[in-house]
């Protein structure tokens, strides 16, 4: 297994992540934790991918500097919105030009939704818990049918199970995975 696993270790993210894992039965607090967690988690993941352009406006007596997002670079979060809404609810405030795609691992109705995706789009497959190898169906669709390079695809998850990571490592060893915690021996 030669995966690129990035463990997000920002202290605030670790504290909120710990609360979501411990308090997963408290339905009143869970949306609150995931909302805050999602914004910080996605910020940490997107930081290296976001390209900022500097524009200078020259006036008669002064020059103003503006920082703008590169409009040519596209970003996509592929997730099951009904399961992960709390995590992505504030993502547009962080990155306004990111698209959110509702996907399902159980059927093939993702095809028409994904047709707009270009080869240079940065894709983040988001899950609360990486505990199902069916995520490979989406990865294979992006890489085979849409011809998106695997370097442009990453998996972001709050927790990930070791045996799933091992299977992903055997099938797709060069994919990047961002997680806060790896769970061992979960049955």
State the main characteristics.
187 residues, alpha/beta, Rossmann fold, six-stranded parallel sheet, two-stranded antiparallel sheet, 7 helices, 8 strands, globular
Give a verbal description of the structure:
The relative contact order is 0.18. Helix 1 (11-22) runs antiparallel to helix 2 and helix 2 crosses helix 3. The protein has helices spanning 11-22, 30-46, 81-88, 91-94, 111-114, 135-145, 162-171; strands at residues 4-7, 52-58, 63-69, 75-79, 98-102, 122-130, 153-161, 176-183. With 187 residues, the chain is an alpha/beta fold. The chain contains seven helices and eight strands, in the order βααβββααβαβαβαβ. 35% of the residues lie in helices and 29% in strands. The mean pLDDT is 83. Strands 1-8-7-6-4-5 form a six-stranded parallel β-sheet, with helices on both faces. The chain has a two-stranded antiparallel sheet with strand order 2-3. The protein has one domain (4-183): Rossmann fold (3-Layer(aba) Sandwich), CATH 3.40.50.2020. It starts with a strand and ends with a strand.
């Amino acid at each position: 297994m030669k995966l690129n696993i990035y463990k997000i270790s920002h202290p605030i993210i670790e504290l909120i992540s710990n609360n979501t894992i411990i308090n997963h039965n408290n339905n009143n607090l869970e949306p609150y934790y995931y909302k805050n967690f999602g914004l910080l988690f996605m910020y940490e993941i997107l930081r290296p991918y976001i390209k900022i352009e500097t524009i200078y406006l020259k006036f008669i007596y002064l020059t103003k500097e503006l920082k703008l997002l590169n409009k040519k670079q596209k970003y996509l979060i592929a997730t099951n919105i009904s399961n992960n809404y709390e995590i992505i609810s504030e993502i547009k405030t962080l990155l306004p030009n990111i698209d959110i795609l509702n996907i399902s691992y159980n059927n093939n109705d993702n095809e028409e939704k994904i047709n707009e995706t270009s080869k240079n789009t940065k894709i983040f497959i988001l899950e609360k818990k990486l505990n199902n190898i069916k995520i490979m169906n989406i990865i294979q669709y992006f890489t085979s049918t849409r011809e998106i390079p695997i370097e442009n695809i990453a998996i972001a998850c709050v927790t990930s199970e070791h045996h799933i990571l091992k299977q992903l490592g055997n099938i797709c060893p060069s994919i990047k995975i961002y997680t806060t915690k790896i769970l061992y021996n979960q049955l």
